Amino acid sequence: MTEPTGNNLWTILEAIARHRGAAFAVVLVITLGAAVVSLLLPSWYQAEAFLLPPKDVSASMDQLSKLSEVVSVTGGLNLPVMVTPSDVYARILRSKRVTDRIIEKFNLKARYGTSTWADTYAEYFSHAKFGVTEEGLVFIRVEDRDPQMAADMANAIIDELNTVNQEIVSGRARRNRQFIEARLAEVKAKLDSTRSDLETFQQTHRTVDFDAQTKLAIDQAADLKVSLARVELEISMDEQTLGKDNPELIEKMKRRDAIRGQLRQLESGGNDTSYFSLPVSSIPGLKGQYELLFSRVKVTESIYNMLLEQLEQARIQEEEQSPTISVLDRARAPEIRSRPRRTMIVLIAFAISLIAALLLAATLEYLDKLRVNRPDDYKRAQYVIGAFLGWIPGIGRRTDRT
User: Tens digits of per-residue pLDDT, 334-389?
Assistant: First the structure.
C-alpha cells in the first residue's frame, strides 16, 4: 500500500525538479509582489481607550434622598436579562447623536473623501469600533493614518459620551424637579390650611396640652404618614418612567398597601373617620380634636420639609456638570502601526506561491505527456498557455521551440 504513495511522491518531486525554473519564477514573483504591495500600503495606527462599567443606579429608591445618585444614563432602565449597562454605553457610542458630533468636529467628510452622510458613517465605523470586554469594560478603538489623530478621536468620543450622558441625566433631573415643585405647591397650600385650622381651634378652645401616651401615638402615626407619602411620591415618579408591570413598582405598591393597613389599625373607634387610631376614649373630646389638628399640621410639615430637601437635590442634579463616566485608560498616540501586517502578508503570499508552483509543475508535466500522446491537442494547449503565461521562464522557451 505504501509503494504507490512513494511512487506518486517521487513523481511529483521529479515534475517539480524538471520544471524548477518556472516553479521558482512563480514563487519569486508572487512573494516579491506581495512584499512590494505591503510596502506600498498605507500604515494605520489604532488608539484604544477603556471605560469602567457604568454605575447601575436603579430607579427603585428606598429613599428619595437617593435622587442625587441618579447620575447614570442607565439608571431606571428595565434592561433585558443578557444586556448590561456597559452594552447600553457601547450602543450610545454608535448612536448618531455621538457620531454626528465627531464627524463634524474632525471634518471627517473631507478627511475620508466622502460626499454623503451614509458613506461617511460607513467609513467612520470601519475605523471606529466599540464593544464590551469579557470583564465588562467598555472599549473604544479608533484607527487612522495619523497616530495622534487616532488618539484625539478616541478621547473626543469619550468626551461626547460624557456630554450625552449629562444631557440625559439633566433632563431626568429637570422632570423630577418640575414634578416635585408641583407637589410642593399642593402641600404648601394644605399646610397653610391645617395651620389656620389649628390656630383657630387654639384661639377658640385654648387647648395646648396633651399627655405622653397621646403624643407617642401621634408620633407613630405621623411617621407612618410620612412613609406613606414617600412611597406614594416614589410611585408617582416611577409611573412616569417605568411600566405599570415593573416589578419594582409593584413592590412599592405592596409596601404602600402595608402602610395603609397599619394606619387603618390605628384608626380610632372602628368606623371613626379620624386620621389616627389612638386609645383616647378617656380623653375629652375637645382634646382629641386638638390632637387631630396638631397631628395634621405635623404630618404636613414633615412632608413639606422632605419635598424641600428633594427639590434642592433635584436642582443640584440638574445643574451638575461633573463627569458621569469613569475612564480607566484614555487613548494615547500609538507608536506601532496596527496594519498592514507586512510579515504576515509576505508569509501568506509565499505559502500561496508554493501551491501555485506545485500546480504549475503538474500542469507542465501533463503538457509534456500530452505532447507525446496527442500532439495536436498539445499544440492547442501550448498556444493558449503561452499567450497568457509566456513571461514565465521555461514556458516562454517551450513556446519558442514550437
Answer: 888 777 777 787 788 888 888 887 787 777 777 677 766 677 766 776 677 666 66
Cα–Cα dist 290/222, whole Å:
15
Count CB neighbours of 278 within 10 A.
Answer: 24
The set of cell numbers assigned to 189 is 397650600
Q: Is the sign of the CA dihedral 298, 301, 305, 307 positive or negative?
A: positive
Continuous segment of H or E residues that includes residue 141: strand 138-144
What was the pLDDT predicted at 237?
A: 79
pTM here is 0.53
Omega before residue 340 within 30° of 0, cis: yes
Rounded to 5 degrees, what are φ and ψ at 106?
-105, 10
Q: What is the CA radius of gyration of the chain?
A: 41
Q: Integer distance in angstroms from the first to the last C-alpha of the chain? A: 41
CA distance 123 to 380: 49
The H or E element spanning position 231 is helix 212-241
- What is residue 59's DSSP assignment? S
- The tens digit of pLDDT for each residue in 112-164 reads 888 899 999 999 998 899 988 888 899 999 998 889 999 999 999 999 888 88
What number of CA atoms fall less than 13 Å from residue 274's CA on the CB side?
A: 23
Work out the pLDDT band at 215, boundaries 50, 70, 90: low
What is the arrangement of strands in the sheet containing 327-329, beginning at the earlier edge strand?
Answer: 128-132, 138-144, 45-51, 327-329
Question: Which DSSP string do the residues of 338-371 spell out, in sequence order?
Answer: -B--HHHHHHHHHHHHHHHHHHHHHHHHHHHHHH
Cα(161)–Cα(221) distance, rounded to whole angstroms? Answer: 47
State how far the alpha carbon of 292 is from the alpha carbons of 64, 231, 272, 276, in Å: 27, 23, 12, 8
CB 323 within 8 A of CB 162: yes
What pLDDT score does 226 carry? 82
More confident residue, 33 or 41: 33
Q: Is the pLDDT of residue 4 over 60?
A: no
User: Where are the extended beta strands (E) located within 252-359?
Assistant: 327-329
